[in-house]
């Protein structure tokens, strides 16, 4: 009978060990998910800061943006510079769209930019002097559909 009790005790201890291992694994997965979520937020923050830093570090870009927003005619160089800025921005938003498709926090700001800056619209559609093709041709069809339904609302 003692042999049977020892086997049962070993079996119980083994089961407790398995349960403890599963609990530990669950905690590790939770910590990993929290870390990954934090990394995503840090990536988004870095993307936003990079965009603003780029504008701050390039005063001629600020002048071109103001001219564009005010409806003044841009030089070919200014239009090309803004085209590059908008393409960079659009690639960042495509990344964000695919990495966090449920996030909509960026849409209203991008919609305001689309409405305020003719150069963004011409970059997207490719009908300005700053590009030879529609910028949207460089993106995934799913992002194009999403962007046109939620941002590039036709005026």
Walk me through this protein's architecture.
The protein is an all-alpha fold and 155 residues long. Helices cover 76% and strands 0% of the residues. The chain folds into 2 domains: 1-43; 58-155. Helix 1 packs antiparallel against helix 3 (76-99) and helix 2 (59-69) crosses helix 3 (76-99).
Number of strands: 0
Order of helices and strands: HHHHHH
Q: What amount of the residues lies in strands? A: under 5%
Helix content: over 70%
Whole-number mean pLDDT: 86
Identify low-pLDDT runs.
none
Shape: elongated
The whole-angstrom Rg is: 26 Å
**SSE class:** mainly alpha
> Biggest sheet, in brief?
none
Count of DSSP H/I helices = 6
What is the straight-line distance between the termini? 87 Å
How many separate domains?
Answer: 2
Please outline what is shown here.
This protein is mostly helical.
List the helices and strands and how they pair.
Elements: H1 2-56, H2 59-69, H3 76-99, H4 107-116, H5 118-125, H6 141-150
